[in-house]
Amino acid sequence: TTGLVTCPDFDVRVESLKCVRNVLEATPEQFDLEEMGWLLNYLTSVGMGIGKQGLFLMEVIELIKMFVRNKSNTGQSFRNKFAKYAIRESFEMLTVNSRRETHNKEETTAKTALTQKIIELLMDCSRPLSGGLRKFLRRVDL
């Protein structure tokens, strides 16, 4: 994988995702399955709590929420192909994040913000528009 999203500087990565978010808001049909798939590669608990990884994850989650909410064929394609994986990774991230120790108010605030963003994604997946994703929220063997 290449591009600005893989840059080691998390500020650049976060800003790159914000640009992607603008494109998704304006023209979601531009995204193909491959691009949706690479987005999910970044949804991981690896490195959680290190540097600005939390901010980056929150931007990734925001994009995934947009795909889940999207009523077009693009949103439907995302829900059909990738939402189950996103739900599974969200549960994993919640588990890792809840076990993560914090040492000051800033870390605690960042941990809480990430937890809230993950829960927002899971709530979006529970809505009727989500196209049948509720069943994946109930299963333990995702």
SSE blueprint and pairings:
Layout: H1 10-26, H2 33-41, H3 53-69, H4 73-81, H5 83-99, H6 105-126, H7 134-138
Structure notes:
- With 142 residues, the protein is an all-alpha fold.
- The protein has helices at 10-26, 33-41, 53-69, 73-81, 83-99, 105-126, 134-138.
- The radius of gyration is 15 Å and the shape is globular.
- The mean pLDDT is 86.
The CA-CA distance between the termini, in Å, is 26 Å
Mean pLDDT level: 86
Using only C-alpha atoms, the radius of gyration works out to 15 Å
Number of E strands: 0
- Percentage beta strand: under 5%
Structural class of the helix and strand makeup?
Answer: mainly alpha
Q: Give the count of helical stretches.
A: 7
Percent of residues in helices comes to: 55-70%
Order of helices and strands: HHHHHHH
- Main β-sheet description: none
Poorly predicted ranges: none
Shape: globular
Labels describing this entry:
142 residues; mainly alpha; 7 helices
What's a concise summary of this model?
This protein is 68% helix and 0% strand. It is built from seven helices and no strands.
